[in-house]
Design brief:
heterodimer, A: five-stranded mixed beta sheet, two-stranded antiparallel sheet, B: 528 residues, alpha/beta, six-stranded mixed beta sheet, 20 helices, 51% helix
Chain lengths: 101, 528
């Protein structure tokens, strides 16, 4: 049983509009048997944070193409993308590069 | 082809998966912070150098911006244009050998009126942008989209291009400039090439400027606000709305550049953006003007040249740079914000390209390289600038003038004409080709008075000169489609309508006096 972890989530480039216009979110993920990874985080965001139009943020089990993900200020492609295991106090940023957010 | 890609993907994965502690491909020391292009991991420092160098290399390679020239930076507040502004600042501030040497100014077009933003939202955004622009110290101009209703006719005339500077003069100009700077520098070090007094005056001027706009006519008169709303309400599809917005924005930028004495305009189109633009423009029927729409430089306006220095950067690079190095940008909701995927051709193309890019990382660069190779058949700086007919709206060379008998375009025209003839009333007004627009004007004019009659002429006052001028014959294929998506042309800004009338009068006059003119061709034959 892993302990609950605290994360700092940030949305930018228009992605914040889907989250009630709030850019910064301080969240705590509840403890669960296996460690949290990005894939689970996206499911959690979809269920708990996303205010509207989920298809504009997640597609399939990953983020919509055109939305960049940074984990602790580094490209998530370097961190293993969906399989990255989240640590306590991690900083995850989502930036939309799409026209109109 | 597919097989090649599959292998390539596998390779990519093999390289990137065990890469949590991957090293930078450039310096081999720093910890990689991001991946650009297929699998190239860069560290923070190397990425910065790479990014900064690319901007200057782009300008250096093209040799289009002369030292001391006044350049207007079109900044929308978005990531790409804000990044462009930061690059210009960086290039002008440091004392490197490859220092930029032009004098910048900033323009922001407030489109809130067309995108349905409230007054408070717009004011908030403008206040935020003002602080951002003021921090740069460059003069800035904040223009509201409503001001298109005050534009003069002259916007739509392509001024015959400024005397072409001969090849090789760039080097001479640079040397001259450097020498001048050295002389100046010896008496007033610090500012480099710019006289501090001049700079101060410029800043003051710009402040006056914006204050004028802010206080004099708070964003714009109510009348124009309604006019703008009516204009965009009359456009039926989002595709046409985006196209119309783009056209009007471009007119405002060019007009501001001309009146404030700028000779170049920098736009922040990234290569991701241009790839989308290329494909969507083809779908919109703008194939004939792809080269000017997406190339590095765009000389369609003659005296003001549009350049796109960000066209080598992908939107990912830009977003990462802005994030890592604290470049401020502001997100302003636009027409297509939160729109469903299929809302407009432009929007659909964008999601198509980004989706393809996610699976095939070279999609954008392949499309973009194609755009680099495009050229217009007619050299843009031909001496017969005047004789080339230009589209009323986008000012590109008309591709609809002489339709060949066997072309699809000709077939469309014929079928349009045939279907119009079935409506006897509208066919009687004017010639067959103008019947359509006149009919539209009459029918919609009943519902919305003011639009037609405010221009001083009754809707059906005379059959000889249609009041709503036949815009179609003055437009290129794509702009025709946009106008077709409007319920009526009477809500267009006055400068477009009066220019159309003027062009019609002119061609009519030409027809009338044509018998008395010596034919150019005959003349040439006689001379030879």
């Amino acid at each position: 049983m892993a302990a609950p972890i605290a994360l700092h989530l940030e949305f930018g480039g228009g992605a914040e509009l889907l989250f009630g216009g709030v850019k910064d979110h301080q969240v705590t993920l509840p403890g669960q048997s296996q460690p949290w990874d990005m894939k689970q985080l996206l499911v959690w965001i979809r269920g708990n944070l996303l205010k509207e139009r989920p298809e504009l943020f997640v597609q399939g089990d990953t983020v919509r193409p055109g939305i960049l993900v940074l984990i602790n200020d580094a490209d998530w492609e370097l961190m293993g993308e969906l399989s990255y295991e989240l640590q306590d106090q991690d900083n995850v940023v989502f930036i939309s590069t799409l026209h109109g957010g | 082809m597919c097989q090649v890609d599959e292998e390539y993907n596998e390779q990519l994965e093999k390289r990137t998966v065990p890469s949590v502690s991957q090293r930078c491909v450039k310096c081999k020391e720093g910890t990689a912070a991001l991946i650009i292009r297929a699998g190239d991991a860069f560290c923070r420092g190397c990425f910065k150098d790479y990014f900064v160098h690319k901007f200057r290399a782009m300008l250096g390679k093209n040799r289009l911006i002369f030292p001391g020239e006044r350049v207007l930076l079109a900044v929308s507040g978005g990531q790409a244009s804000s990044s462009m502004l930061a690059q210009v600042q960086e290039g002008l501030s440091r004392n490197a050998p490859k220092k930029l040497r032009f004098t910048p100014g900033i323009i922001y077009i407030d489109e809130g009126g067309a995108c349905g933003q409230s007054m408070e939202e717009r004011e908030g955004v403008i206040a935020e942008l003002e602080t951002m622009f003021r921090a740069t110290g460059y003069p800035f101009h904040i223009v509201h989209l409503e001001q298109v209703f005050d534009l003069p006719i002259s916007v739509l005339e392509a001024v015959s291009s400024a005397p072409q500077r001969p090849e090789g003069s760039y080097k001479a100009a640079v040397e001259q400039f450097v020498q001048n700077a050295r002389v100046k520098g010896s008496c007033s070090p610090g500012e480099g090439h710019m006289d501090p007094a001049v700079l101060d005056a410029q800043i003051q001027l710009s402040h006056l400027d914006t204050q004028d706009l802010a206080n004099g006519t708070p964003p714009s008169s109510l009348q124009h606000q309604q006019d703008l709303e009516r204009l965009f309400a009359s456009v039926r599809t989002l595709t046409a709305k985006e196209d119309m917005l783009q056209t009007l924005r471009q007119h405002l930028i060019v007009h501001t550049a001309r009146t404030k004495g700028y000779t170049k305009v920098m736009m922040g189109d990234s290569c991701s953006r241009l790839a989308v633009k290329l494909l969507s423009n083809i779908s919109l029927g703008r194939g004939a003007s792809l080269a000017v729409d997406t190339g590095f430089s765009d000389q369609r306006y003659g005296d003001v040249i549009i350049v796109r220095p960000m066209r080598d950067y992908s939107s990912k690079e830009i977003a990462f740079y802005n994030r890592m190095f604290g470049v401020p940008s502001i997100f302003i909701p636009g027409l297509d914000t939160k729109a469903p995927e299929k809302a407009s051709i432009q929007h659909l193309t964008e999601s198509f390209v980004t989706m393809l890019q996610a699976d095939f990382p070279s999609t954008v660069s392949t499309i973009y390289r194609t755009s680099e190779k495009l050229h217009t058949a007619r050299p843009p700086h031909s001496s017969e600038m005047e004789t080339v007919a230009k589209c009323l709206l986008c000012l590109c060379a008309l591709d609809t003038k002489e339709a060949e008998e066997a072309s699809a375009f000709h077939a469309t025209l014929v079928s349009e004409r045939l279907s119009e003839k079935r409506v006897p009333e509208s066919a009687q007004v004017g010639s067959a080709s103008t019947a359509d627009t006149v009919g539209q004007c009459c029918s919609s004019g009943v519902g919305q008075e003011g639009g037609c009659s405010s221009r001083g002429q009754g809707c059906c006052s005379s059959n000889l000169t249609p009041v709503t001028p036949d815009l179609k014959s003055l437009l290129c294929y794509s702009c025709r489609l946009t106008i077709k998506d409007m319920t009526g042309v009477e809500s267009l800004p006055p400068y477009i309508v009066s220019e159309a009338e003027r062009r019609h009068r002119r061609s009519q006059m030409k027809k009338e006096i044509s018998e008395f003119l010596l034919d150019d061709e005959e003349d040439e034959v006689a001379a030879s």
